[in-house]
Every structure is written in C-alpha cells, then in structure tokens.
Amino acid sequence: MSIKIKYLLALSISFIFITQSGFSQSAKLPQIKVSKNQHYFVTEDGKPFFWLGDTGWLTFGKLDRAGVEKYFADRKAKGFNVVQVMVLHNINAVNVYGAKALVDEDVSKPITTPGNNFNNKEEYDYWDHVDFTLDVAQKNGIYLAMVPVWGTNVSKGDKVNKEQAIQYAKFLADRYKNRTNVIWLNGGDTRGNEFQDIWNAIGNTLKTNNPNQLVTFHPFGRTDSSDDYNNASWLDFNMFQSGHKRYDQDTVKTAFKEDNYKFIHRDWNLKPTKPTLDGEPSYEGIPHGLHDTLQPKWTANDVRRYGYWSVFAGGAGYTYGNNAVMQMFRKGDKPAYGNKELWTTAINSLGAGQMIYIKKLMLEFPYLERVPDQSLVANQGEKYDYIVATKGKNYALIYTYTGREIAVNMGKIGGTKVTASWYNPRNGQKTKIGIFDNKGIKKFKPSGIKEDGNDWVLILTSNK
C-alpha cells in the first residue's frame, strides 16, 4: 500500500470517528498549577494564568450541542478562560436531549452506555454530552471548573450520603483523569461548616485519585472556603462568594458586605498560603439582594468594581456572572430572579465585554511579583470611595471606582522618576499623564465628575 493511500485511509478513519462521536481531537490545554509563591496560578510550563471566569452553571443540562459551540466561542472571543458549571444541578438531572444522569436519583449510579455516537440516542448519554462540552471548551482554550453535585442536594434532606458521595467522586475522578482542562469546585453555594463529612469525602477522593487537577470549595454567599477548609489537604486554592446584597441589605455585623477585597486581604495572610479569588460576586442584571425583583439590578459598573477591588487586593483572578447566562435562560423557561433576557443575547451584555480589560492589564506587567500594597494610597476611603492598590518592583496600579482624586505616597516602586498614565476599565484605553518625581505625595485626578462607575486605574511605571 502506498504512503499516499495509507495517509488518505487514516484521514478517512479519523473523519468518521469525529463525525460519529462528535468529539474534537484538539490539543490538550496545559495543566494549571499553583505558583511557587502560592498566591497565583501558572500553567505547567510556568506561564502566568489569570483566572477570568464566567458562571455558565446550567450549561450541561440546558444547552444542546449548537448552544455549547456558540457559548464557548463567544466566551473565548471575550477573553474568558474558565467557565464554572454544575455537573449535577439536581439528582434528577436530565439534559436537553432527555438523557438522565443517574439511576433512581442515586449519585453512586451514573447512567453510562457503550459508545458515544450522537446520531444514536441509545449511545449518547448524559456523560457523553459532558465529554462533548469539555472538548468544545478545550478547543476554545477554556477550563471547566465543575461542581460535582450542587450543595442543596446535600444540605436539604438525605439525598446524598457519604458512601454514595465517595463512589460518585471516584467515578468522576476516573472518567476525567486525563482531562487537563478540569478544575473541581466542591460544595456549590453551601455552608462549609455543614455536612463536612460529605464535602471532605468528595474533596479527598477527587484529589487522591487525580492530584494534578485543582480542587476548591464554592461556598454560600458572604462566606469563604478558607472559613472551613484552608487546612484541608485536598483544597488547592480558596474561593469566596461575595454575594448579591447591597451594604444596607446585609444585616450580619461581621460580614464584609460589598467589600469583597476584605476576603482577599484576610486570605492573603493565612497559613498555609493558597491562591484566592471571588468566585461569585453580584451578577450583572440580577436584582440587589436576589429575590425582590422590584429592586435595582446590578450593572456593568458593579461587576467591574468587584473585579478590580478583589484582583488588586491580591486575588488570583475573578469570576464574572450574568443573571440570564448563569441560568442559560431560553424561550419557555420559567424565569428566576426576575430575568427576562435570553442567554443568547445576554452573552453580549456590557460587563461581559469589559472583563477582558482587567485580564489584559494584569498580564501586561510582571505578574508573579505582584503584591497588594495599600500604603501607596494616602486617601483610601471607604465603601464606593475605597481606593485599592497593587504593585510590582517597578510598577503600581491604583483603582478608583468613583473617579475620586487619588493621593499617592510615592517612592513605593523603583526609580527616581515614574511615568503616570490613566487606564480606562470600560474600554481598555490608556492615556499618558506625564513624568513625575518618585517622592512625596502626588495627587492625580481622573477626568469626569465624581460618581459611581466613573472608574479609572492609575498606572505608575519606573523610569530607569
């Protein structure tokens, strides 16, 4: 047989396999690891990885294959590299093709069938659709941060016991052992101090069987994985949910309220040191406080504020969310949280398109040397007037949400002089201000009036 014929035969076989299975054979993504300083993420070859997440929670259950392709292509175009998704929203989970996930709503009994041919309904099961979604995500350079089973299935009733949880976690670990674009979010909007035997069983099983995949815990609103699991051997990084309430809606005296940077400042100093990030701030388009649909909705301004506040405080990344997208709202769906917008249009919401600018800014400078440093700011302020700062050896980044004047304690970075510029978080444009002596207190006033959402980043770079 000639070399040409062998090549054509191999090509045909490959085409038949891809056509029948529907699964792409794109190259694996690099494994994500914790950086040496234990505050950030890097790829396996040591390159900085800034977590820019989206909450596509119901992707596996509500999107068909065309929807999966559309969603991940869009998120790639907007710079997202992580999507947070539920493997099982409920234990009676059924996907868009009518495939059930479990036998008798028992997490220890996943329904799997031989083969994965999409054109054969008897072959293409719930887990094949998860596989397909992982492949599409991989093709688009996106990691899936997957919640094994949403917390309410454990916290409300006796739907999942420890033995079932261990068997289920072992199934997941075995099935996705060779997937480099899988990250695990244990828990799922649930209190970390409850049902710890189950959450520790899932975490330990996932980590023991596949130590290369990162594991964290997605907690209840206004709480942090570090509250209960920072010392757990299975927890690689911390995640908190700053939540959806306004300052005045949160009556718990000890809560950080909207000040999500306070979670980061606390986690930064914990031992053992672990990366941390806001995995669920207020979603764009969701009512303040969630449940009263007559309340104002959170906007692009707010999701930017949460992002810059938490990242400049030392966060290893940030997760954006949108009311319609997180529930993958389709025509005919029963709306939650007052949503009326289809996910197919909501993916183009203003805030979603602006998230890429925080990622680009952070990766523009030496990333792994970055530390939070509030001593840069002589007029820090509080609530929406709070000004947050981060720096490296020869650069500093300072964020104001309200366009408030920034008074800088100079001399905190290298060089006798510094170049100052404004960075616009709404469009990523940079405007040079000038060159200044790197000493004393220098005041910088951004353009526009002082108001919520007139946010700016002051960039200072050393002149060598």
Automatic annotation (TrEMBL):
What sequence ranges are listed for the domain Putative collagen-binding? Answer: 371-460
- Tell me which residues make up the Apiosidase-like catalytic domain: 35-368
Query: Which ranges form a coiled coil?
Result: none
Give the GO molecular function terms: hydrolase activity
**Keywords assigned:** Hydrolase, Signal
* Signal peptide annotation: 1-26
Please name the PANTHER family in this protein's record: ENDOGLUCANASE, LMO1036 PROTEIN
The identity of this protein, by name, is Glycoside hydrolase
